[in-house]
């Protein structure tokens, strides 16, 4: 699987770069290990996208992958309590509806 080889290459290259530039203190920093779960989640999402491209074709897979904007926007409003004016909420709602409508129209036709 090319995805695993690519990931392994990035990991080895980053390790060599850090050792060559004598930045080994990065291996001892807490923040270096706190971002690992985010990287794993990203890897799962990227793998799901690759599988979707094989199953659905690149046109449909790409359009569906762009719907993450809708989830991110709603997550920001609901969970992070993003503050907006009434006008801002209206524009955001219209934008989200247009994104979903565009995805539906693109995937159907």
Automatic annotation (TrEMBL):
One of its GO terms (cellular component) is plasma membrane. It is found in: Cell membrane. It is a multi-pass membrane protein. It comes from Lactobacillus helveticus (Lactobacillus suntoryeus). Keywords: Membrane, Sugar transport, Transmembrane, Transmembrane helix, Transport. The lineage of its organism: Bacteria, Bacillati, Bacillota, Bacilli, Lactobacillales. Gene3D superfamilies: 1.10.3730.20. GO terms for molecular function: carbohydrate transmembrane transporter activity. Belongs to the GRP transporter (TC 2.A.7.5) family. Its main location: membrane. Coiled coil: none annotated. It comes from the Bacteria. This is Glucose uptake protein GlcU. The chain crosses the membrane at residues 6-21, 33-52, 58-81, 88-108.
